[in-house]
Design brief:
6 strands; two-stranded antiparallel sheet; 134 residues; alpha/beta; single chain
């Protein structure tokens, strides 16, 4: 009988969830969504647990901002255990005036080489050392 690979997609939102699927040998891959895990630090813990267990990862997304997609693209590029990325929500939204974070080349997102996530402060957002109120 041929083995059909299983990916834990909506099953892993925390390190505890990752440990559970690892201990149960419940999957071959884990999909990490930064917005569901609580951000980069928790995503890194999940990836490290999976890597130690020999489970490869994918980075996925929901409908998210350019900034969060940039974080996910940078995370995927920085972790060799991440072998797939599904960050397609950037193609589903109205093009943003925001730039930085990544460039789009065909169907690929290339993370910025600039500091941090590669976003620059817009001149219109500068306000004498204070932040605009919302």
């Amino acid at each position: 009988m041929k083995h059909i690979p299983i990916m834990a997609d909506e099953s892993v939102h925390s390190a505890q969830d990752a440990l559970k699927v690892i201990q149960l040998h419940a999957c071959d891959f884990v999909n990490i969504k930064l917005m569901k895990t609580g951000g980069l630090s928790q995503a890194q813990i999940i990836n490290d647990l999976c890597q130690t267990a020999g489970i490869k990862c994918m980075v996925g997304c929901m409908i998210e901002s350019r900034e969060s997609i940039a974080a996910a693209a940078a995370f995927a590029a920085a972790n060799t255990n991440v072998i797939y990325a599904d960050l397609d929500s950037v193609f589903m939204s109205v093009p943003s005036a925001e730039t930085g974070g990544f460039t789009i080349q065909g169907t690929s997102l290339l993370p910025s080489n600039d500091s941090g996530l590669g976003f620059k402060q817009k001149n219109s957002a500068k306000t004498n050392g204070s932040f605009p109120t919302i």
